[in-house]
Design goal:
Four copies of one chain form a homotetramer. Helices cover 27% and strands 20% of the residues of chain A. Chains A and B meet through strand 8, strand 9, strand 10, strand 11 and strand 14 of A and strand 8, strand 9, strand 10, strand 11 and strand 14 of B.
Chain lengths: 316, 316, 316, 316
């Protein structure tokens, strides 16, 4: 794999001008896309990829889109959650939701497709969906509360008063109480696993005073009682063959995955309340973003799934 | 009010030896309790206050206990949650749970009692109970998930590997998944407000990389549908007369109350899921500990409720 | 003392709109200055106060200016360090540099002056000058390196990429290597104490991943050898009568003064190198800003020096 | 290179028991050293390696020692700085100080030695020595103040009150004012570069509220005036061929190197004071510890210097 070009908005400068830590790579951010590409990775505001992708497909380029423009299957979800009409609803059902643990076969099938679009999921969705997929698949999800905590890098690099160090540090707050966009894809994917439309998921995100990491705490009322042994079996069967997922025996900390493409999950039956608690952690900038996109790319292009993703977590 | 003595375990030293920031007070930690006291504030491991308090009562001293030994009314809760048999179950029903917003009249009534015990609640309990009391009182609590986030000062000053800066910083994790002790008093007090035993509360605490502050996110399924207008009215009626409680129109951050005795609460109907979300924040070391104890002391001794507690929040 | 009005740029809104933690004060930010004032506190970009103050003086209002416009005595310093010509150089020698510990008599003398301007010093200058004034006054300063560390609140609330939580957190950097403006007043005030122009001071500021606090580490080569006993005597004689200064026996942490108007200083002879090390800490938003301005106001208006400033440090 | 065993004190457990983030490696901490080793990496309390190494040398094992037992050439420095008599002073002059940038040839020469000891330097020493070596080598160091700032991971994992999150967070302090041990090797190595004994270095370390990273701010008075052009030339000539060192044009932040084996340095002439300021940053756990030990091992064993060290910095 060779990086043949980087393109940014109105930029033509060495990468260290905006990303000093990458200075030793010698990369440069240009202002135009090179020709003869096999694949592009897109990270664009919503709506921008939808406009750009058809032309890329015409050129035979595979698209790994890190934005939301091809994640939702129902065109009606775009005006509802993103306030734009999707210009190419026909492509929505041909794009593959880029969670290799759930859609590995679909990603492999893209190799022979003339519409190669991977809709790479974001951080909250990945953490939530991977946490609950085994329960959904077994038809066990009844009532779901997802209380998620994220470091601030999930909000991007833009300077905003809310992101000022003095506001974030030594503080925690919830946001998005009127409904976070990512709940749409969480409900879509869990519904697909369950084979049925689920009741609306109660999803509440929080901003935590740290840079990287997401923890999804999923409080689940199951459709029937389940004991710890069955729960353990469910998660191990689902994930023991997955290279980037660890089913762990104690509540995981986000620090256990920082800088890596790993997802760690812990499922627990609370005998007192009868609820199941599932705790999932990932690094929102790796398994929740760029790392997962590379993982899906590897699958589509027939490379080892872990190519470029071998980095161990960086702790402390 | 005069501080006539401080007593610590095996200590006899100026306060700045262990608390450098208090050096200018000239206080000294002694190794014995002075005589002729009107009131003592206790902060002891569970079981220790239960052993000590009867003798203090005999001396006519009012006790403000910041530990759990007199918070629970049912003696059976002590072996269950704290693993000790309570030596004086007769005192449990005479102690007053020191939440002035809910038990103000009981605190006033202590003035004429020969058993003056204030069982001052801790941080998680205060945040949870004050967040949900108006809904409980109205008989609206059906199913309750409390997902709480706390700074590390809630765990005390003891050196433990889990509290090392390098472990806590840039990380978040849940703990106490097998049931946190404070859920006992949360269920007791919400049940008292409701006038009925409630279904078990799902309470999950998290450790957040910050020093002070608690946020309780309460996800509630109500016994009947309720709209935003009725919800607002419920909280304003409950708290508009309370000097330390603010019903706020947007999700509060813990930084909005740091260093003060204030509790801020925001209640929101989620039209999509039908749930009610209540977000409450406080400083775990003030309204969740020492400040609240002083507030209750003020009520018991007929002082203005805010004596010694006028400090505004310290932000940023 | 009564706060009769707050004025902000283009604002007319309750204070909680921009400062949610102050909501309980009921204050409002208006867009015009009320009439009939005794004193105003100004916090303005450099140059703005110089333009505004003459008119305030004509109205008989005392001015406590938290900006730099009246701190420097030499008019030539304004074009050099702040790139503007001072419009009223005649006022510079009549303004009083608002460090009550060094200029207490001058502040008292303002009571009878028709030009009542207090030029309140900022955080770096206060920490540096108070750390070194006793050595300067004794004629002992030869070569001075001040290596200062500041929390980010010193840079104000403006959103800038450098202040984004993700940039600041888990990182430290020096800045202002070409000369920080505050060195001008540091050299002025230490020179006044010494009664002679000193060699240029090497002042290097750092941005630390915390919100509040400044630590000035001053590495001094003295004009003659000095032992620890003499050094201790020098500092205790200078500061033992000062209500807000503590000479401490161990290196202080900034956390020991957070939220208070206190300055803590530790002076140490390094027998190996022959240098003297002085470590001074303060809260840049209190003793390094608003608190010190109130302290000087108290002195000018004949109030107890600690009025409104009794708050103990908030730790942890 | 194959890791054939890990040994810890009184342990026999999977690595994830103490280091959860490394669970996916499948490594196990044993309680005995395997046989047939080519090399061992030691991280031991001072004095312990000195006792252990002779036996390892007898077995033909190369030793990469991350502790101080073989860093100092003068046996008298051990009782002075570490309070023990060195049991094998004869080995001190045969060990190589493991800074590949300065002692690369000596490391290569170890291949043919029967005493293969690499004394791998620690974080403060590496940052200080690499920052100043070009000036020392050119005979330009006259008076040196090193004001260093470190994240807390430099102090190890042990639970101590000073390392509690609530003590470290939102605070900065200096420590070791009576002389930090690492100054001994800093003076030794800079003296070797200069070819002469230097005046004592004033070295002051600080604890910063972050986990990883060291910044050394070196304030230097030179033996003769030097301009920026000559200074730049000096640093580029010294380091442009080094794979892990970047001479940068602006003050570097520690975040620019986190998780990598890189050292970034910026040198600046302060025209006003005539001093030279050198700012060096590294990750204390990589280039300041394990990474550097691997780098030296690679050189000794004839592997590419960057084997196992290709990881880019992790920012934000």
């Amino acid at each position: 794999v060779e990086i043949v070009g980087l393109q940014g908005r109105d930029r033509d400068e060495p990468i260290e001008a905006s990303h000093p830590h990458l200075g030793s790579t010698g990369l440069r951010i240009g202002d135009a896309l090179p020709a003869g590409l096999d694949a592009v990775f897109l990270g664009l505001p919503h709506g921008a990829a939808a406009a750009l992708v058809p032309d890329l497909l015409d050129q035979g380029v595979a698209v790994i889109d890190l934005g939301p423009d091809f994640r939702l299957r129902d065109p009606a979800d775009y005006p509802r959650w993103y306030r734009f009409e999707h210009p190419r609803p026909d492509l929505l059902e041909r794009a593959v939701y880029g969670l290799p643990e759930l859609h590995g076969d679909d990603l492999v099938a893209l190799r022979d497709s003339d519409v190669r679009i991977v809709a790479s999921p974001g951080c909250y969705a990945t953490a939530s969906i991977l946490s609950l997929a085994p329960l959904a698949h077994a038809g066990l999800l009844d009532d779901v509360v997802i209380d998620a905590k994220s470091g601030v890098s999930g909000a991007g690099r833009e300077s905003k008063p809310d992101m000022h160090f003095a506001e974030v540090n030594e503080s925690v707050k919830a946001y998005g109480v009127d409904g976070h966009r990512h709940v749409a894809e969480i409900e879509q994917e869990l519904g697909l696993q369950a084979g049925a439309r689920l009741a609306p998921v109660d999803f509440l995100p929080h901003l935590i005073p740290m840079t990287r990491g997401i923890l999804a705490a999923c409080h689940v009322r199951t459709t029937r009682p389940i004991d710890q042994e069955e729960l353990d079996k469910l998660y191990h069967e689902a994930y023991d063959g997955e290279g980037f997922v660890d089913v762990v025996a104690a509540p995981p900390a986000t620090k256990h995955v920082t800088g890596s493409n790993r997802f760690k999950v812990h499922a627990h039956v609370d005998a007192r309340t009868g609820r199941v608690l599932v705790l999932g952690v990932l690094d929102n900038l790796v398994k929740g973003a760029a790392g997962q996109a590379i993982q899906a790319f590897n699958v589509v292009f027939g490379l080892p799934e872990s190519s470029g993703l071998e980095q161990l977590p960086l702790a402390p």
